[in-house]
Here is the input.
Amino acid sequence: MKKFLLSGVLAIAVAAMVGISTNVSAQPVAQTFSVAVHIAYPSGFEYDGVFATGVPSSDLPTYLVACNQSHKWGVGSEIHFHCYPIPE
Here is the structure.
């Protein structure tokens, strides 16, 4: 009888340890992004370049606005571009 009781207590202890370790390891990791810019020229040449890396999701809108503002050309320009996030 003691053998069954001891194995039951051991099973409960192991289950509790697994539950605790799973709970700790399940903490969400903050998502980071790279911000890239896609530029299309009238000649048909297209280019994708990295504007920023390691951007936290909370700062992503600010980086996208900055990227779009930094790549403005004059009104009627034939150069088209857009900035976009890439999850890291």
About this structure: Residues 1-6 have pLDDT under 50 and may be disordered. Residues 32-87 form one domain. Residues 55 and 80 are 24 Å apart (CA to CA). DSSP finds two helices and three strands in the chain.
